[in-house]
Amino acid sequence: MAEAGIRKGAGQDELERLQLALDRQRRLAEEKERQLERYASDLRETFKAERARTDELHASYLATVRALTNAVEARDAYTGKHAERVAAYGLELTRRIDPELAENPQVEFGFLLHDVGKVAISDGILFKPEPLLPEERTLMRRHPMIGYEIVRDIPFLEDAAQIVRHHHERWDGAGYPDGLAGEQIPAAARIFSVADTLDAMTTDRPYSRRVSFARARSEIAAMAGSQFDPAVADELAHVPDSRLELIRAGTG
Q: pLDDT over 70 for what percent of the chain?
């Protein structure tokens, strides 16, 4: 009997020891869970703060880019808001063709700054109502390289600089300044080329009256594979007129 009592007492002690060990492990697990929750909360707050700083920085960059754009457009009353319209057309197409590319803020910056190089072109050439002479045309064709030189060394405009440089390249290689062809041309520059032509055709200018979106689409489609990337021209055909009208009105 005494022996059985000893065994029972020893078994009870072992159970109590195990119970204490389990309680200790449970407390440790609960403490680790609380620590993880605190870490997760800290990470969320850090992410929110970083996102806020990023948004603030982007807003600052965009304000700077718009100021540069406005300085260029102030020279030409006829093109009023051309850069903002063409950027909006371009972003609409980019979101449809390559949503990831559209997330890069430098794409919008490049669209807005495409003509920044024209600050170095004289008014006599820039606003000449008659056709340009060959030497004047040569000077005008320098504006993409001039613009590229202006923005290429600005850290937040490195990608945008490629759009500025290549927005007059052609799908068939007959464009300038580098004579790139097909997919050698940066994707954003290929998209911009279509958007730029769309805005030029559907806006009144001193030398031409605007045409309908349907007419502009038709003419751009006719130049797909020569001047324009066929995929971009095809995507334009799927953008509703109502959407383009909103963009042109500045409400899209």
A: 83
- In the predicted structure, residue 181 carries a pLDDT above the cut 90: yes
Q: What is the pTM of this model?
A: 0.75
pLDDT value at 180 more than 70: yes
Gap between the Cα atoms of 164 and 121, Å rounded: 15
Does one domain contain both 15 and 115? Answer: no
Which of 28, 57, 74 is the last residue before a domain boundary? 74
Residue 157 sits in the same domain as residue 51: no
Is there a single domain that holds both residue 172 and residue 238?
yes
CA dist 112 and 247 (Å) reads 15
Q: 194: burial class by Cβ within 10 Å (0-12, 13-18, 19+)?
A: buried
Instruction: State the pLDDT confidence band at 24, using cuts at 50, 70 and 90.
Output: confident
Question: 121 and 203: one domain?
Answer: yes
**86 and 66 share a domain?**
no
Domain that holds residue 60: 1-74
The count of structural domains within the chain is 2
Indicate the pLDDT class of residue 48, thresholds 50, 70 and 90: low
Looking at the structure, tell me whether residues 82 and 70 fall in a common domain.
Answer: no
Which sequence positions are flagged as catalytic? 118
**147 and 221 together in one domain:** yes
